[in-house]
Amino acid sequence: MTTSVRRPDPADFDWPSDSGLAAQVREVLSACTQADGAAPLDESALLTLRHDGLTGSVCLVAGDPVVGFAWLRDGSVDLVVHPEQRRHGLGRALLDKALDVARSAALTAWSHGNHPGAAALAAATGFDRVRDLWVMRLVVDGPEGLPELPDRSGSSVVVRTFRPDLDEEAFLGVNAAAFAGHPEQGRMTRADLELRKSEAWFDPAGFFVAEDRASEEGELLGFHWTKVHPGDPARGEVYVVGVSPRAQGSGLGRLLTLTGLHHLAGLGLPEVILHVEADNAPARAVYGRLGFTHADADTHVMYRHP
Predict the structure, then answer these.
(1) Which of 44, 102, 135, 232 minimizes the number of CB atoms within 10 Å of its CB?
(2) Residues 93 and 178 in one domain
(3) Using CA atoms, how far apart are residues 185 and 151, in angstroms rounded to an integer?
């Protein structure tokens, strides 16, 4: 199979359009999600496409209509090929062209799912496997199937829901401190937060923060932001749990995690997922004790080209 690779004009990409380049890209993304059971782009990438389009990036596409694309941005490349067009050399052609465009710059690439085809392509083009991100799953049978919430009577720390337009800066401060060493989460900005707040799934009733009422201004010490994914059936997510370094080891992380899980279970969701770094053994152990399990296929893999 021979399909030429071309570089379209970013001005031709209009995400909400029912026709044209963006519509074709959406069709490829939808087909891959349905076939693979996981979206080929992460949340940050999808938000960028929806709100900024291809501004400041390079997109290489194959086929007319589009059946695959490579998207270069911020030192990374996303490679997506329609399931019906795989195993014909199209992914290799797109990746070779992307490497040529990037020239000597280092590149990272995610495989959203531990796909053998992605591993083979990475090995053939000089990418090394450098990071594994686990998806862990918990089958939920109502709140009664979860451990009880810890008794915090006498504590000055209370858990309440997030207050839009009041808690943003305090949340961002705790998030930055809790994830100071994390390559993505720790860099969240006010603009990033506002984008997520504008999403249909955002619900402050499922966004919990721990406030120390003994402090003069009610310091936030941690949070558990949950998410509900629509579908049939819908499922919940431990979107992100963070605890201030000064409160770590106090049991606050367990309290916040269980608070969010009880909330999701109360919504009648049959399953809750979360993402955790594969090398974070303490966190994996905590989630394992709560009943979360992991299958090898539920692994997102980051590759790096030197």
Answers:
(1) 232
(2) no
(3) 30
Domain that includes residue 213, residue range: 141-269
75: its two tokens: 């030192």
Q: Tell me how far apart the alpha carbons of residues 66 and 40 are, in angstroms, rounded to a whole number.
A: 15
**Domain tally, the chain:** 2
Q: What angle do CA 245, 264, 270 make, to 5 degrees?
A: 130
How far is 233 from 228, CA to CA, in rounded Å?
11
User: Residue 303 domain-assigned?
Assistant: no
Residue 88 burial class via C-beta count within 10 angstroms: exposed 0-12, middle 13-18, buried 19 and up? middle
Q: Are residues 99 and 164 in the same domain?
A: no
pLDDT digits (tens, 9 = 90+) for 156-175: 999 999 999 999 999 999 99
Give strand pairing partners of 293: 137
Contact 57, 49 (CB under 8 A): no
* Residue 10 contacts residue 57 (beta carbons within 8 Å): yes
Q: How many residues appear in the chain?
A: 306
DSSP-assigned letter for residue 149: P
Which residues on neighbouring strands pair with residue 227, listed in sequence order? 237
The angle that helices 281-289 and 252-266 make with each other, rounded to 10 degrees, is 50
Distance from C-alpha of 292 to C-alpha of 140, rounded to nearest angstrom: 10
The helix or strand, by DSSP H or E, that contains position 169, with its residue range, turns out to be: helix 168-178
Q: Which of 305, 5, 301, 300 is nearest to 125 (CA)?
A: 305
Instruction: Please indicate, yes or no, if residue 97 is contained in any of the structural domains.
Output: yes
DSSP 8-state assignment for residue 75: T
pLDDT tens for each residue of 101-160: 998 788 999 999 999 999 999 999 999 999 999 999 999 988 888 999 988 777 899 999
